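Review form for a predicted model. The reviewer records the input and the model, then writes brief findings.
Reviewer: anonymous (R2)
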Amino acid sequence: MSQPILVTIDGAVLDPDVPFLHADDLAAVRGDGVFETLLVREGTARCVGLHLKRLGRSAAALDLPEPAVDAWRSAINTGQRVWADKNGKSTEGMMRLVYSRGRESAPAGAVVERDHAETGITRESNEATAYLTVGPVPARVATSRAEGVKVITLPRGYSIDHAADAPWQLIGAKTLSYATNMAALRYASGQGVDDVIYTSSEGDVLESPRATVVVLKGETLLTPPATNGILHGTAQQALFALAEKEGFITEARRLRTADLIAADGVWLLSSITLAARVTELNGYTMPVPARADEFGSLVDRAIAN
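Model under review:
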């Protein structure tokens, strides 16, 4: 069984079974924070630069202090090293960066020290909370990679213009407020499928609760525009950067459900699962793409760069 890892932003490696958060941390009581998930493969966290850039964008949307990139990189290096030491380089891990506003009860300017007996390190509890964990990749991941996923479309309930019209809704930021996404996935499970693709009030394809939609059409790779109020996928960005070098045309374009049905292939791309081919959409069995293996290999190579 894999041994989980907990690392603070200052590099302290703590016992993951010992309580770490205060009960009134705003991450827990309000979901007032942001996060990123990175795949640790062969002892190395993948696409670190893309994830830290997105962490910064999400933090800015929530008016959180700008993340300390150098400190995060150092903590990531520590986390991946300790994970590999304890679990072996061949064991994939899911690294989660968590960055919240800190404690609700701490008045501005107050300093409340908390001792880590294992390290002697103290922490000011009125500061933002920042730490990372590394744990096993969920069991569903291997199945999704190998067999693909059955998907239904669900309305998200707002227009593609909503993100620009209502920036306080934090659409496109990777926040800890994930209850709606998890509810959508539970609903999908109740319908006998694996995942969801959200659509806008105009009928545009948006994203999955935990992945980016990527479509193959001939020599062109397509994805919905991030400006439509979706999360800018790190795996998708890495894929498109490599695909362009290898002769593919890449484009962010408005898509409808009919475009998915007519495509040569549709995948849900995410940092942990990587490429999960859509095998069924709203009950329709999608044909197996002639280039399915090539696509999967392209994704694997893209996240290794």
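Findings: The chain has a mean pLDDT of 92.
Further findings: DSSP finds nine helices and 16 strands in the chain.
Recommendation: see findings above.
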